[in-house]
Amino acid sequence: MSDIDVDAPLMHPILKNDYATQWMGIEVTKVADGHATITMKLRQEMLNGFGIAHGGMIFAFADTAFALSCNPHTGSEDSITVAAGVDINFLKPGIPGRLLTAVANRRQQSGRSGIYDIQVFQSVPGAEDEILAEFRGRSRTIPKRA
């Protein structure tokens, strides 16, 4: 399957009616079979009471990359792939105004089950991006509901 590099957000079919992803301002920068890269700016309304990224925002961001990497960018008429379970480890605080990047990769696929690793990075002015969180997702492919 070929890679798709896109210039505009919402180029993956599962994002067409994904209003949460639209609100978050997530942009798809790359999708391929078993891979996705997305970006998002960390805005004020995404912060917790400590003035850093709300963990739920980081989770939702990583979860979007997970979903994009699990489902074909060409769409499927018969099935969807959903989360069977996930774990996330927060390594650093998310700083307001920073650009976040999530990189998702399939590690293993066996039948209808898969394992995916997603790394979330944040930009650092004048330095290399730093890792913000590690997310591991376990997927399950199921029939699409009518």
Give structural notes:
Keywords: Hydrolase. Residues 50-123 form the Thioesterase domain. Pfam families: 4HBT. It is an enzyme of class 3 (hydrolase). This protein is α+β, with helices and mostly antiparallel strands and 146 residues long. The protein has a single domain (4-143), classed as Thiol Ester Dehydrase, Chain A. A hairpin with a 2-residue loop joins strand 2 (27-32) and strand 3. The chain is globular, with a radius of gyration of 15 Å. It has a seven-stranded antiparallel sheet, covered by helices on one side. The protein has helices at 19-24, 55-70; strands at 4-5, 27-32, 35-41, 79-90, 99-110, 113-124, 127-143.
**Helix share, percent:** 10-25%
Highest-level CATH class: Alpha Beta
Please give the order of strands in the largest beta sheet. Answer: 1-2-3-5-6-7-4
Percent in strands? over 45%
Morphology: globular
Secondary structure tally: strands:
7
Average of pLDDT: 91
Main structural class: alpha+beta
Low-confidence stretches: 1-10
Task: Give the terminus-to-terminus CA distance.
Answer: 26 Å
CATH architecture: Roll
As an assembly, this protein is single chain
CATH topology: Thiol Ester Dehydrase, Chain A
Protein name: Acyl-CoA thioesterase
EC number: 3.1.2.-
Organism: Paeniglutamicibacter kerguelensis
GO molecular function, one term: hydrolase activity
